[in-house]
Amino acid sequence: MICKTIVEGTTKVLVPVPPPDATFPPSAAAVFYNPEMELNRDINVAATAALVEKLLSRKGILREEIRYADAFSASGIRGLRIAGEVGIHTTMNDWNLDAFELIKENIRINGLEEKTLATRKNANVLLHEKKFHIVDVDPFGTPSPFLDAASASVQSMLSVTATDTAPLCGAHLNSGIRKYAAVPLNTEYHSEMGLRILLGACARELARHEKGMSPLLSHVTRHYVRTYLEIIPGAKQADRTLKLMGFSIHCPTCGYRESVYGLAVHIDMECPVCGTRTQIAGPMWLGPFREPDFCNETISELEVHPLNTKDKAKKLITFCRDELDIPMFYDQHVICKELGVSATGIETLIEAIKAYGFEASRTHFSGTSFRTDAPIDKTKEIIKAVSG
To answer: Is residue 362 within 8 Å of 345, Cβ to Cβ?
Structure first.
């Protein structure tokens, strides 16, 4: 296995060089390493550091007692960065023998023998065997088969990445139903649909272990969904969490959408705006997908760490922080195409919506997406007016 040395943050890591004729270099290498996920890992360092500060403020918890599990380590880069840059003990696990040997070598290179443990186990076995304050599930593909074990193991924060966006977002409908026990719809807001389907799957798995959750930070970036969930133990907290589950109603004709809370609900078949038969997605998470205070704490941590993607990470988290808590977003270009008008600047549109007395905000999902509490017919009226 031919390797090269790369540096992320303050961590030096050996990573495999993929064959020159590989069509998708990261997956073609002997041990998976994707340089495109550096933004993900930079945010992970800052968010984990923010959570650790939260834990340290509680009585009886010391930094050296905090345990982090990187269940799918590959080269070990994520876990090594947490151990070296956040300063907490990290277990790095991978079933692949080449990955296991590379992890041990990277531990030695960084002098992190006392702060790390390398294991070679099935991820579910590791997580059923031990409890960890922070569990990170970042597999190649769907995290669904590992959410039960992760929910059993985690005590403080569950971090999850899903790269199977086609099933999550409704493009591969049956696959999404099988993997997440929910119906996703492939709408213009499919990226948010995928995020809320994933959050809903996590909420249900945690509830089975009598644990509630509060999303601290979640984002959808290119080909993946990422979320950081604070764990709140107790049956009552699990019940509280499930009250934020529900279904999303979508009208494919006029774009009307509505959220209905609950796991056993009554939904009208016809759209109240245009009378078209509605479509239903869910069950999914309908609550907030981030905490503004935690976003600010993560941004503060970004400032103090030497990170290559710092500016991009700050911009992304700021957009997440400032979004309204209203599922689901609208896409300005989709509405403008329907109306046959030209799109104006997104900030101009948002200010116009606010001028009509409604709430509105941009989102992190795309440059043309926005949230508002204005009804769909009123939103279209405002867009027509702004477009002149």
So the answer is: no
Measured over the CA atoms of residue 42, residue 44, residue 49 and residue 53, the dihedral's sign is positive
Which tokens in the block code for residue 315? 């911009």
Q: List the alpha helices (DSSP H) in the chain.
A: 25-28, 38-56, 77-81, 97-109, 123-129, 147-153, 165-169, 173-180, 190-208, 235-242, 292-304, 310-322, 332-339, 346-355, 376-387
For residue 249, tell me if it sits in a domain: no
Are 187 and 206 in contact, with CB atoms under 8 Å apart? no
In 3D space, the residue among 220, 217, 239 whose CA is nearest the CA of residue 296 turns out to be 217
CA angle 112, 107, 12 (to 5 degrees): 95
- Alpha-carbon radius of gyration of the chain: 22
For the record, the structure tokens of 175 come out as: 């696959």
pTM over the 0.90 mark: yes
Write the CATH number for 357. 3.30.56.70
Closest CA to 299 of 312, 285, 282: 312
pLDDT digit string, tens, across residues 22-61: 666 565 555 778 888 999 999 999 999 999 999 999 867 8
Contact predicate 32/74, CB 8 Å: yes
pLDDT in tens, 82-127: 999 999 999 999 999 999 999 999 999 999 999 999 999 999 999 9
304/342 same-domain check: no
Q: How confident is the model at residue 388 (pLDDT cuts 50, 70, 90)?
A: low
The residue segments making up the domain with residue 234 are 3-241+284-322
CA separation (Å) from 31 to 77, 87, 102, 143, 159? Answer: 11, 25, 8, 19, 22
The backbone torsions φ and ψ at residue 93, rounded to the nearest 5 degrees and listed phi first, read -125, 140
**Count of domains forming the chain:** 2
